[in-house]
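Limitations

Structures in this collection are predictions, not experimental determinations, and the ligand pose is part of the prediction. Treat each record accordingly. The example that follows, with zinc ion as the small molecule, is included so readers can see exactly what is and is not provided: the inputs are given verbatim, and the output is the predicted complex.
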Amino acid sequence: MDIVTGHIGWIEVVCGPMFSGKSEELIRRLRRARIARKRVQVFKPSIDDRYALDEIVSHGDQRMKSDVVNSAKESLEKIDWRTQVVGVDESNFFGIDLVDVAQQLADTGKQVIIAGLDTDYLGRPFTPMPELLCLAESITKTLAICMRCGNPAKHTQRLVESNDLIVVGAAGMYEARCRRCFEPGIPRQELMDFAKPVRSS
Ligand code: ADP
Ligand code: ZN
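Predicted complex:
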């Protein structure tokens, strides 16, 4: 609880694939907090410098000033104790350390809003989102539109060849795909077991 205001803190998670509106939703909630005259701080990881250095930017070009940090712990160091609402974008780049940081912030009376990918380029749970989903008071899953068929899309399809978990990129390198159209690991799909032709012995 915040010892000054008596407010209880909590964690809100906004998760889903790329292009699903996570940043837009984060910006919307933070703007509303500002309208309510709350003190707001926003963090994003330094690894993500795709569109701007000191702003979070949605694919629809909505923007909001943010502090750039190298780690989750650094955001804790940069917190002004008077801050009431903390936003974190691209949370999946922070790794597991974000869990403790989010808990500490919520335990000290802050509203923590965390946006990030819930699955990786192979469709696997993406740390630290699964852990944060368990600890959050509120969860929102956003869906994009599948670029193949137009259905609701929960997957982030990687279009470039790489086996690295983190390849920072946007349109052209990734696109949203539904469950049916998602091809995990493309363009290396031909190497995966389920895609190999069945040989009769
Ligand atoms: P995220 O943070 O989840 O990557 P953004 O909030 O940055 O998403 O961007 C959402 C916006 O991206 C949408 O409002 C829309 O204008 C645009 N967009 C581009 N491709 C798609 C798609 N396949 N599905 C939905 N929105 C898309
Ligand atoms: Zn589809």
